[in-house]
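Hi support team,

I've been running sequence recovery on a batch of backbones for a student project. Most finish fine, but this one hangs at about 90% for roughly twenty minutes before it completes. I'm not sure whether the input is malformed or the queue is just slow. I've pasted the C-alpha cells below so you can try to reproduce it. Let me know if you need the job ID as well.

Thanks,
M.K.
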C-alpha cells in the first residue's frame, strides 16, 4: 500500500504568506498539526481550551477559515458518520481517499496514483481547473466485516 505523503507545515506556510501569529492561533495550529485524528471544530475547541481557557469557538472557526482559504486544511464530512459534523485535517503534499466505516466509525486513509490520474482526466475532459478535491467511501471496515462473517470451523 502506498505511504501517505507528508503533511504541510502550517506554521511555515502561514509565515511564508506573511500571516501574523498570535498565541491563540499558535495553539490551534499545533493541535491540528499534531492530531492523528480528524477533528471537528468543537473537539478542537475543547482541546484548545485546556491550554488557554480564553479561546472561544469563534477563534477556532476563524483560524480554520484562514487555513482553508490557503488550502492548508481540508474540511470533510466523512459520510456524516456522526451526524452533521465537519472534520478538519492538514492537507498533505498529495491527496488521499477516506474510507468511513458505518459500524465502528473508523476512518481509514488511502493514497493511490489513480486519484491524481482521475483529477487530470476531469481537468482535460471538462476543461475544469481543480483547486481541491475529495473522495470518500462509506462501508464496513475489515474488522467489522470479520465480525459479520459466521465463524468458520
Ligand atoms: Zn468498522
Ligand atoms: Zn485524512
Amino acid at each position: 500500500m502506498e505511504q501517505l505523503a507528508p503533511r504541510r507545515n502550517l506554521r511555515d506556510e502561514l509565515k511564508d504568506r506573511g500571516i501574523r501569529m498570535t498565541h491563540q492561533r499558535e495553539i490551534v495550529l499545533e493541535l491540528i498539526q499534531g492530531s492523528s485524528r480528524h477533528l471537528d471544530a468543537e473537539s478542537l475547541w475543547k482541546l484548545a481550551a485546556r491550554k488557554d481557557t480564553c479561546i472561544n469557538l469563534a477563534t477556532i472557526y476563524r483560524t480554520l477559515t484562514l487555513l482553508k482559504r490557503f488550502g492548508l486544511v481540508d474540511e470533510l464530512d466523512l459520510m456524516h458518520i456522526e451526524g452533521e459534523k465537519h472534520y478538519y485535517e492538514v492537507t498533505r503534499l498529495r491527496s488521499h481517499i477516506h474510507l468511513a466505516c458505518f459500524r465502528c466509525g473508523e476512518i481509514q486513509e488511502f493514497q493511490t496514483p489513480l486519484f491524481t490520474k482521475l483529477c487530470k482526466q476531469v481537468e482535460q475532459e471538462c476543461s475544469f481547473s481543480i483547486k481541491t478535491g475529495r473522495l470518500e467511501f462509506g462501508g464496513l471496515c475489515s474488522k467489522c466485516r470479520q465480525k459479520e462473517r459466521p465463524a468458520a470451523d
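--
Follow-up from support: It reproduced on our side and the slowdown came from queue contention, not your input. The helical segments are 10-16, 23-34, 41-51, 57-69, 113-126, 142-148. No action needed from you.
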